[in-house]
Design brief:
Bound molecules: pseudouridine-5'-monophosphate, manganese (II) ion
Helix content: 40-55%
Shape: globular
Radius of gyration: 17 Å
Largest sheet: 10 strands, mixed
Number of strands: 10
Strand content: 5-15%
CATH architecture: 3-Layer(aba) Sandwich
Distance between the termini: 16 Å
Structural class: alpha/beta
Number of domains: 1
CATH topology: Indigoidine synthase fold
CATH class: Alpha Beta
Number of helices: 12
Length: about 290
């Protein structure tokens, strides 16, 4: 089938599946994401690097092989060249997945929460490469805001500095990943997919500045966790990551692992529900974009 006859594609990232959830659950989360994307009429395209080759549309078997390997690196956009040159396997983060999706002509990408400004970044300078990627690659990223372990208000400030449109879909708030109650607002709100597609077309068209956009969804109400509970868990998870000596790129996986182990998997279940609901909206957006193109 020619590309134009195929279903519109939605990019998915491999870091979420390898490092973001317990590895033994990566396949199950992938299946849920695929069902969500396919159910809305689009084609899931899992992105990752296998033995140095950049792969767009990894299948279940390739993912299972990746998940079975020990110590697969987590790479951002800057790490793609090294992974390719050294012929290694790598899980791609939001930034790397955006770079690869843009190259492959995929306009929409679904994830859980983006990386952003870490708490204490004033001293550590730890800011995710995801923010720069959003300002650089013409891809619409559908998320529930940024991960709750981060500093959300400062993340939103940096997105403004970097010129990234931050669009709340059916919400005025910059979702706090586990909760819709958030300390910070989005820049703009859109309430229907057709309008979101029109906005995305202008932005991704690049005429008034190249780069992507961040779509912020609501956390499914049935899976919301109270902000006080989230705060307490995040503080404990970050303290544990620190005790383990996690630095740099290892901070996010270590903190998420600690968080996922707290409260009998409640945070993990919300995380999975959030990613699946983002995948549904991403697919609807991809379909709407393709319809307008036709
Ligand atoms: N959000 C999640 N789980 C994850 C991530 C985000 O719910 O695993 C991953 C994404 O791949 C994101 C990365 O790009 O964490 C950000 O890592 P860092 O903060 O080190 O840039
Ligand atoms: Mn970092």
């Amino acid at each position: 089938m020619s590309r134009s006859r195929r279903r519109p594609r939605v990019a998915l990232e491999s870091t979420l599946l390898y490092h973001g959830v317990p590895r033994r659950r990566g396949l199950e989360v992938f299946d849920r994401l695929c069902a969500a994307v396919e159910g809305a009429g689009a084609e899931p395209c899992l992105i990752g690097i296998v033995d140095g080759s950049v792969r767009v549309g990894l299948g279940r078997r390739s993912l299972a092989q990746m998940l079975a390997r020990e110590a697969v690196a987590k790479v951002g956009a800057r790490g793609i060249a090294g992974a390719v040159a050294r012929h290694v396997c790598a899980a791609t983060t939001v930034s790397a997945t955006m770079a690869i999706a843009a190259d492959a002509g995929i306009a929409v990408f679904a994830t859980g929460g983006i990386g952003g400004v870490h708490r204490g970044a004033v001293a550590s300078y730890d800011e995710s490469e995801d923010l720069v990627a959003l300002s650089r690659y013409p891809v619409a990223v559908v998320s529930a805001g940024a991960k709750a372990i981060l500093d959300l208000p400062r993340t939103v400030e940096r997105l403004e500095t970097l010129g990234v449109p931050v669009i709340g879909f059916g919400t005025d708030r910059f979702s706090a990943f586990y909760s819709n109650r958030s300390p910070v607002a989005v820049a703009e709100r859109v309430d229907d997919v057709a309008e979101l597609a029109r906005l995305a077309r202008v932005r991704l068209g690049g005429r008034y500045g190249r780069g992507g956009l961040l779509v912020v969804t609501r956390v499914p109400i049935a899976h919301e966790i109270a902000p006080r509970t989230v705060e307490r868990a995040v503080t404990a998870a970050l303290a544990q990551a620190r005790r383990q000596g996690a630095r740099g790129a290892a901070v996010t996986p270590a903190a998420l692992a600690a968080l996922n182990a707290i409260a009998g998997g409640r945070f993990l279940e919300t995380n999975i529900a959030v990613v699946a609901s983002n995948a549904r909206l991403a697919a609807a957006l991809a379909v709407a974009l393709a319809r307008r193109r036709a």
